[in-house]
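Q: How would the structure tokens look for this protein?
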Amino acid sequence: MKILRFIVILSSIYFSIFTISNSNESNDKIAYINIEYVISNSIKGKSILNNLDIIQKNNSNELKKFEKKINSIETDIKKTKNIISDQELNDKINLLKKSISEYKTLKNSMSMNLKKKRNEDIQNFMKKINPILENFMEENSYSVLLDGKNVIIGKKSNNLTNEILKIVDNNIK
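A: Here is the predicted structure in token form.
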């Protein structure tokens, strides 16, 4: 049942696109760009991704330091478990558990904050790109501009990625 529904939907999408592209009345210009390529290769996009990479490396270094602290506590427990009293052992084990809990909390927090920052930065960058794309479409009479990752096959002449990249680099610093 799901396969049949998928085939019907896929067929109707294909038919719609085929009908639109082959219509004699339609003078619509359709093009596509690889927006991920524009983001990762534009000057501003590289800057954003570089800053996010720096944050990721700093987070990783901080977590490694925390891991060393935990490993140190664990090593200390292993070395002294037969020498110290049960109360001292329990205290050290509780300290280890607390440190592990703090580590997990810190790691989750860093991950969430980085994800949030990445989303905000990319979204702000896209807000700057969208008016450029709209202006480009209007000036060049394009009616549809698709994301290249959603295009299965298309003429290379309809791929405007490099042209858009140059425009973005010239307009967004």
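The mean pLDDT is 85.

The radius of gyration is 27 Å.

Upvote if useful.
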